[in-house]
Write a structure and sequence with these properties.
Oligomer: heterodimer
Strand order of the largest sheet of chain B: 1-2-3
Distance between the termini of chain A: 45 Å
CATH class of chain A: Alpha Beta
Strand content of chain A: 15-25%
Number of strands of chain B: 6
CATH superfamily of chain B: CBS-domain
Distance between the termini of chain B: 24 Å
CATH superfamily of chain A: CBS-domain
CATH architecture of chain A: Roll
Order of helices and strands of chain B: EHEEHEHEEH
Largest sheet of chain A: 4 strands, mixed
Radius of gyration of chain B: 18 Å
Order of helices and strands of chain A: EHEEHHEEHEEH
Number of strands of chain A: 7
Helix content of chain A: 40-55%
Strand content of chain B: 15-25%
CATH class of chain B: Alpha Beta
Structural class of chain A: alpha/beta
Largest sheet of chain B: 3 strands, mixed
Amino acid sequence: MPITEIANAPVVEVAPYATAEDAVRLMAHHHVGALVVTRENELVGMVTDRDITTAVVAEGRSLATTAVAEIMSPEPAFVRDHSGIMEVIQAMRRSKARRLPVVDEHLHPIAIVAADDLLLYLAKEIAYLGRAFSRGWEVERATKDAPG
Amino acid sequence: MSISSLVSPQVVSVTAGMSIQQAARWMKSRGVGCVAVVDGEQPLGLVTDRDIAIACGVDGVSPDGPVRTLARHPPVTVLESTPLPDAIAAMARAGVRRLMVTDGVGRIVGILSADDLIPLLGEELAALGETVRFPHSVPV
């Protein structure tokens, strides 16, 4: 299962020279908590809603004049589009990040995978497994108890 | 299993009169993404780092304004005696990943976070995995 099929959040890009206000407006509009920062289509950073709060609001800086480049996490960890679930979980553990950009061979971000996406995927698998177990007992009852 | 043993007792709470900027500083210095806004011992609601970012960046709220204006009303609370499945159901109903946990007289005793439940459920699932991997060695 390629990770791009599990990643639910849209990838939203922002330029490093955009303002913190531009960034948070994009986050609100697209209902995402993180943006990928790109320069000439290449991944150069990540900026999150938490960065806005802790690096701008908490520090008394202006959202209208603070540039994304000043508050982003530069050179973020990323995974490739063909990465598997375990590989992504290990990359999240190593980088202590709950969201990772997924990039193609040109380092262009094509998705963001969040820990939430992985949890939903695994929960669905377990739910299907639970249904399979319960259905197995139903089938046995129906065949063994059937008259004749 | 009730949630009492799972509740994080280290509630990071801020008073209703504190400013949004001060609350943001608290979140930063304590490394948390959510604080409980309280009036005395009464919980008013939770405020997350995202709430602050959107309020100040999109809604034009001044960081000097009181943080109580961002607390989500009514607060989503459960009693500490609530069974775990009921607490998870309450999170799902309200679409939140953190619940304020109160005692019998409405005082806040902690926060139950979905993040704290995932390792617990993971451990239980891993233990189950070990059990079904060697079914014949398990005493009946």
